[in-house]
């Protein structure tokens, strides 16, 4: 299998027709069809189902598309990296960040790249932590800031910081006091929780306690906007950080209480795919992210304990 065949395959997959792919690749549709037949013979599996109105990928085609995008992306990054060795940092780096990370350093990272690396193209994606990890695993981003990622040999991770979790909600829901709330009392409140699964892992490190919360949660959502609106409407409370709903806490619309017995925490990791080759651009952005996180913690924008540089036992 050749690189050009992968490019042809991706073009057909994304256009859905041989004619559309032919226009993009400037290769005759008959030649593209011939290449696909050769690939299918090599793999021993059909990659597309030929339909009257186009090409529909099979299960094998869907899987190959994920691999092909990662391979082509890595090859393009390698070419750029070698060309810029010893020169000005250039190329494209995509970063996925959990919602809280974007609030703390997203704009600062964009300003830094624009000011110091004019030839570097930064792509920044904001999502809930579980979705951010999926973007990384699908090779849609190069770096990801993720809370409590699962142990996976495909990932290279470094613990960056640890955050204390608090209970956030309206005073009539969580109490008009700043006193800490014991975990057992927290379970009696109408908790709004991130959807179960990978997203829910971002709430805290302790999986056992998380399962107790999941069992008691009244609502489960996978949208920051929906959670925010529900909190302001007095539908319940969330376990989060002060940064998560900072504007509403500062305005007095929402209130927070520390959680005790036990205290709850979560850990932020910077993650990348272990087998993906590093580039000068990627290393530069990674370094800038860690420096910006440290600055945000030191000046109080991000209330957390720095862990960057400590071994996390995951690599």
UniProtKB/TrEMBL annotation:
- Any single biological process term in GO: regulation of DNA-templated transcription initiation
What is the superkingdom listed in this entry's lineage? Bacteria
Indicate yes or no for the key word Oxidoreductase.
no
Q: Which GO terms describe its molecular function?
A: DNA binding; DNA-binding transcription factor activity
Show where the HTH lysR-type domain sits.
Answer: 1-58
Q: Which UniProt keywords apply?
A: Activator, DNA-binding, Transcription, Transcription regulation
> Which InterPro entries has this protein been placed in?
LysR_HTH_N, LysR_subst-bd, WH-like_DNA-bd_sf, WH_DNA-bd_sf
Query: Which Pfam families is this protein grouped with?
Result: HTH_1 (PF00126), LysR_substrate (PF03466)
Family classification: Belongs to the LysR transcriptional regulatory family.
Annotated protein name in UniProt: LysR family transcriptional regulator
């Amino acid at each position: 299998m050749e690189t050009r065949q992968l490019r042809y395959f991706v073009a057909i997959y994304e256009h859905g027709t041989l004619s559309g792919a032919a226009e993009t690749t400037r290769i005759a549709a008959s030649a593209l069809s011939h290449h696909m037949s050769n690939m299918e013979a090599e793999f021993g599996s059909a990659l597309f189902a030929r339909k009257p109105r186009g090409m529909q990928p099979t299960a094998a085609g869907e899987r190959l598309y994920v691999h092909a995008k990662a391979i082509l992306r890595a090859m393009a990054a390698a070419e750029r990296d070698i060309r810029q060795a010893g020169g000005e940092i250039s190329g494209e780096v995509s970063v996925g960040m959990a919602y809280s990370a974007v609030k703390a350093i997203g704009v600062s990272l964009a300003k830094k790249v624009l000011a110091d690396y004019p030839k570097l193209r930064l792509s920044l994606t904001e999502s809930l932590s579980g979705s951010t990890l999926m973007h990384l695993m699908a090779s849609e981003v190069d770096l990801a800031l993720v809370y409590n990622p699962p142990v996976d040999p495909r990932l290279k991770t470094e613990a960056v910081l640890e955050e204390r979790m608090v209970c956030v909600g309206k005073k009539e829901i969580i109490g008009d006091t700043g006193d800490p709330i014991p975990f057992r009392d927290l379970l009696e409140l109408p908790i709004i929780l991130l959807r179960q699964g990978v997203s829910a892992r971002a709430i805290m490190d302790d999986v056992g306690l998380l399962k107790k919360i999941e069992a008691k949660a009244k609502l489960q959502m996978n949208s920051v906007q929906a959670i925010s609106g529900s909190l302001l409407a007095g539908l319940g409370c969330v376990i989060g950080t002060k940064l998560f709903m900072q504007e509403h806490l500062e305005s007095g619309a929402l209130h927070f209480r520390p959680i005790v017995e036990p205290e709850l925490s979560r850990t932020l990791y910077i993650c990348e795919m272990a087998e993906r080759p590093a580039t000068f651009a990627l290393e530069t952005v990674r370094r800038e992210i860690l420096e910006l996180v440290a600055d945000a913690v030191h000046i109080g924008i991000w209330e957390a304990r720095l862990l960057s540089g400590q071994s996390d036992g995951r690599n």
